[in-house]
Amino acid sequence: MTSSQTPFRFDNSFARDLPGFYVAWEGAKVPSPELILFNTALAEDLGLDGLHRETAGAAEILSGVTTPEGASPLAQVYAGHQFGGFSPQLGDGRALLIGEVLDQAGRRRDIQLKGSGPTPFSRGGDGKAVIGPVLREYVIAEAMHALGIPTTRALAAVTTGETVYRDGEKPGAVLTRAAASHLRIGTFQYFAARGETDKVGQLADYAIARHDPDLTGADDRYLHLLRRVVERQAALVARWMLVGFVHGVMNTDNTTISGETIDYGPCAFIDAYDPAAVFSSIDHGGRYAFGQQPSILQWNLARLAEALLALIAPDDPDGAVERASAELGRFADLYRTHWLTGMRAKLGLETEDPGDQELCETLLGLMQQQGVDHTLCFRRLGDAAAGAPDRFRDLFTDLPAIDAWLLDWRRRLKQEAAPDTDLKARMNRVNPLYIPRNHKVEEALSAAETGDYTFVRTLLEAVGSPYEERPGLEAYAEPAPAAFGPYQTFCGT
To answer: 12-25 burial by CB neighbour count: b if 16+ within 10 A, else e?
Structure first.
C-alpha cells in the first residue's frame, strides 16, 4: 500500500498511547474505487475540505487502497455481550481506524474506514461491506446529527468496483466515518475478562484524558468516569425514544464511552407508535425492541461497571460493588428526567407540572392503541396549537378519546406563564417533519444498487434539515403505503 500526501493532519493518540490494544493493519486492495458521496460540511469541520478537490486520490484513500501520510491504520480489539451472550474477543473485523485529527474546534475525532477488508479480528468473514448498509449508515447517521442527537458522522461513501456476496451479488463499498472515539464498553470488557487490570486502568485513563479531562488525576476518577458514561448514555437513549429511533443491535460493543450513537446496522425509525417494534432480522426475541432500549442501556452500563470494579476500590470489592451500583441506580431517574423534559418540549410546555408525565403517557397510549404515526402526530400537534386541530385529529380513529386528551392538553397550556404567540413554531423546532422513513430508505438503497444515487441524495437533502418544511419533499413526510412491510433490516455483515 502506498502513502499519499493529503490534507489530513493526524495526531494518533490511540496508536501512540495504547500499544497492545490493537493490531496495525492495512486495507485490502480494490479494483476501481469511486467516490459517490462526500460530506463537504463535515470535511470542512474536520479541516479536510482539500481532500474533495483531489477526487481520484480521495477515492483511493477512502477505500483503504492508499494510506495517507501520517496515518496509523489499525484494527482495535474489544469484546462484547451480543444479545446477552458474552464474546470474549470481537474487534474491528471489517474496519480500520486510520488516525485522528483535531477539528476546527480543537476536538479530537477518529477517522475510520468501514468495509475496508479482513483484519485479524474478522473471524472468517471477508471484511467487506456492500452499498446498501454503507448508504443506510450514511443517511441515518447524518439524519441523527441533524436531529441534534450525538452520533458518529458519515464523511464519505466509496464504491470499490468489486462484487461482494450478501444474499446474492452486491456492489462493494466502503464508508468513512468520524467519531469522538471508538472506545466501547466492550473495549473495557476485553481486558477485564482477562484479568488485565493494569490495562483496564490504562484504557480508563486514556478515556478520561480524551472525554473527561477534568477528571485526570482526580480521586475516585474511575467511579466518576462511570458516572459520566451513565449520564451521557441516559441522555442519548432518551433522545432516541423521543424521535422513534430503534438501534436494533444494542450489544455492549455498540455502546460508546463518548455517548455517541454508533454502528447503524439493522436500525430503523418507527412509523406507527409501538414499543414492541423490532426491525432487525436477527432479534428474534425482541431483546432490542423500541421500548426495551432504556432498560437494555442500563444493563449494558452494568457491564461497564463490572469491568471497572477493580479500579474503583482495589482493596474493597464489596465497597466497589456498592459504589458502582449507586451510580447505576441513578440511570432510571436520569433517563426519565431527560425523556420528560423532551416530551414537554414536544407538547409545547416550558414549565413543569406533576401531571405532565401522565399527560404524555396518555397520548402515547392512544397512539399505540390506534396505530398513529409517531412523527406526524407530534408535528401536527403544532397545528392544533395554532388553532387548527383537524389534521392532528385525522390521525386517530377514536375521536372522543383524542378530543378528551386535547382538552386536557389545552388546559395544561393555559398554566404556562404567558401566552405563547409563537407556540407552533417553537414546537416545530423540536418535532421533525422529515425522518429517514423506512420505505424511502429502501427506495434509495434499491436504486443505489443499480448505480442511481439520485434518491439517496434527495433523502439526504430532506433529513439534513428535518424541521424545515420545503416544497418538493412532501413524499418524505408521509408514512409508508399500506402495502409496505412488515419491515425487516439486516446487519450487512
So the answer is: bbbbeebeebbeeb
CB count in 10 Å sphere of residue 337: 13
Catalytic (active-site) positions: 253
**Relative orientation angle of helices 331-346 and 317-329, to the nearest 10 degrees:** 10
List Cβ neighbours of 446 (8 Å cut-off, separation of 6 or more): none
User: Looking at the DSSP assignment, which residues form a beta bridge with residue 487?
Assistant: none
Handedness of CA 149, 151, 156, 161 (dihedral sign): negative
Read off the C-alpha cell for 33.
474505487
Read off φ and ψ for residue 433, nearest 5 degrees: -95, -35
Q: Are 63 and 160 in contact (CB under 8 A)?
A: yes
Query: Residue 272 pairs with which residues in a beta bridge?
Result: 373
Cα 75 to Cα 86, 91, 92, 94, 324: the distances in Å are 20, 7, 5, 8, 31
Kindly state the helix (H) or strand (E) to which residue 76 belongs, with its residue range.
Answer: strand 74-76
Q: What are phi and psi of 10, to 5 degrees?
A: -80, 145
CA distance 353 to 325: 30
AA letter at 167: D
Per-residue pLDDT tens over the stretch 81-102:
999 999 999 999 999 999 999 9
What does the pLDDT look like over 384-398, one tens digit per residue?
999 999 999 999 999
